[in-house]
What we know:
- The chain has a two-stranded parallel ribbon. It has a two-stranded parallel ribbon with strand order 3-4.
- The protein is α/β, with parallel strands linked by helices.
- Helix 3 crosses helix 5 (106-113) and helix 5 (106-113) runs parallel beside helix 6 (135-141).
- It folds into 2 domains: 1-81, no CATH class; 87-175, Tandem AAA-ATPase domain (Rossmann fold, 3-Layer(aba) Sandwich), CATH 3.40.50.10810.
- It is globular and about 50 Å long.
- Helices cover 39% and strands 11% of the residues.
- Helix 2 (34-37) links the parallel strand 1 (24-26) and strand 2 (42-44).
Amino acid sequence: MALIRQWEEEIKTKLKTSHHGLTVFVYHQTSATPDKFKTYDVVITTYGTLASQFRKYEEWLDQGHKPSELATSAEMKTKVALLHPAAKFHRVILDESQCIKNKETQTAKACCLLVAQYRWCLTGTPMMNGIKELYSPIHFLRIPHFEHWPNFAAVGSQSTRFLWATYPNILAEIPVPPRRRTQRPCHEEDADTAQGHHAPSDQRL
């Protein structure tokens, strides 16, 4: 809970409200619907909330319902608001995405059900015990070919050398927007740098 409050505080303090302010809804231990999500710029929630909603979704399916019926269920619109087809996000960002490294967990399955136009994974440890831990984030990111388990498992069964040779090919499938480069004129005060005399390291950008 402390981490999501930190994200809320970062959004509020690091953006100028007069120009780029974003409204934030912390969705944790509270009731909401996809319609409510649409009234905010950012929705912050927890992996625990996602896992809880996935359990409710599985229980609903065990009662004989079909996945196609979810869109028309008024009851489930509140119970599984994040997983409901009406909850369509512009971008979903998984912070500490190693939390979904086990594809069999309810958390991983719930994250992969989220509807979004863009998907990001943030982690400093994408793989800890084996290359197969990469599958769940890759499946979440919808990386072509490798997002399907049989295709990924075929790669995962190869030698370590082959895996590391293939890993860059997997990353190459991730669409990355081009970086925008800007140029500025070289003024007199920049002349030394332009001639190869660099500023001290603590003054470089």
